[in-house]
Specification:
Elements (H helix, E strand, L loop, with lengths): L2 E3 L5 E3 L8 H10 L4 H16 L6 E5 L22 E3 L2 E4 L2 E4 L5 E7 H4 L6 E6 L10 E4 L4 E6 L8 E7 L13 E7 L5 E6 L2 E7 L9 E4 L2 E3 L3 E3 L5 E8 L4 H17 L7
Antiparallel strand pairs: 1-2, 3-18, 4-7, 5-6, 6-18, 7-15, 8-12, 8-18, 9-10, 9-15, 10-11, 12-13, 13-14, 16-17
């Protein structure tokens, strides 16, 4: 409602801006998000993450809003850290980030060995694209193929996932539809790794190592030693994060919050 000054003076002020969570407002300002629906959705996402007690476990959150290379590059958890540098064939829209599958990817600047221990890590992505794909949703692996990676449905129909261990140890024909929220996480205190789709566990594997590789995580591709990208993806992503280990219940809560966020923006892909 407009604010009237001096009784019947006829002088009006513009409507007062909504009071957003300070962390949401910091992101909105840095990413220059001007759309009211997007602003509200971001604020609700932050409030939900805090209400579920998973905000503190997040290290980098990319909500992919604003529709530009700049707005989609910012980290919601801390806009001053881990801003994505985009490379090659990437397309940005209000639906998120679409990777071209040839040479497009994003360098998050998030180094696993600096920011996570070997057994305390999780990461996830909200995919709007279904089908097989020869690329990785995100990744960083060393010369022995130990590291962090998710390939939802490779050309052999298998899901490949690594959570600071060997990539090939997590293979399985788990999914037919690759739309929705996918999370990989180490189980707290042990070397077990789990992959989830829409809050439901798809597969559990024993980890073979706790290798926190000294590499930055790439999105839309995999980072190899020396910073060379490979395994280029061609899906559309609408959310990504990197953080500490999440329990099954926390994965469920994260999925609920992210799905509500996507629904508000009109880009949800499952019910």
């Amino acid at each position: 409602m407009p604010v009237i000054l001096g009784g019947n003076t006829g002088i009006y002020l513009a409507s007062l801006a909504p009071a957003f969570d300070p962390d949401a407002q910091a992101f909105i300002t840095a990413a220059a998000i001007t759309d009211a629906t997007q602003q509200s959705a971001i604020n609700t996402l932050v409030v939900d993450f805090k209400g579920y007690n998973i905000w503190t476990k997040m290290k980098a959150i990319y909500p992919y809003v604003g529709g530009t290379s700049s707005s989609t590059s910012y980290n919601l958890k801390n806009p001053a850290q881990f801003q994505i540098t985009w490379n090659g064939g990437v397309t940005w829209s209000n639906n998120g980030v679409l990777f071209g599958g040839v040479n497009g990817y994003g360098n998050t600047g998030y180094n696993i060995s600096v920011n996570n221990t070997g057994s305390n890590i999780s990461a996830g992505v909200y995919s709007r694209t279904s089908g097989i794909n020869a690329g990785s949703e995100f990744g960083a692996v060393d010369g022995a193929f130990n590291g962090l990676q998710l390939a939802m449905k490779f050309t052999d129909n298998n899901t490949y996932y690594a959570v600071n261990d060997f990539v090939g140890n997590g293979a399985g024909n788990f999914v037919s539809d690759t739309r929705g929220m996918f999370v990989v996480s180490r189980t707290s205190g042990v070397n077990t790794k789990v992959v989830y789709r829409n809050g439901v566990s798809l597969g559990t594997q024993g980890g073979t190592s706790n290798t926190a590789v000294n590499l930055n995580v790439y999105v839309g591709a995999r980072n190899n030693p020396g910073g060379s990208a490979s395994s280029y993806n061609s899906r559309e992503h609408a959310f990504q994060y990197i953080g500490e280990t999440l329990t099954a219940a926390e994965v469920g809560n994260l999925t609920t919050a992210v799905q509500a966020f996507q629904t508000t923006l009109g880009r949800n892909v499952w019910n």
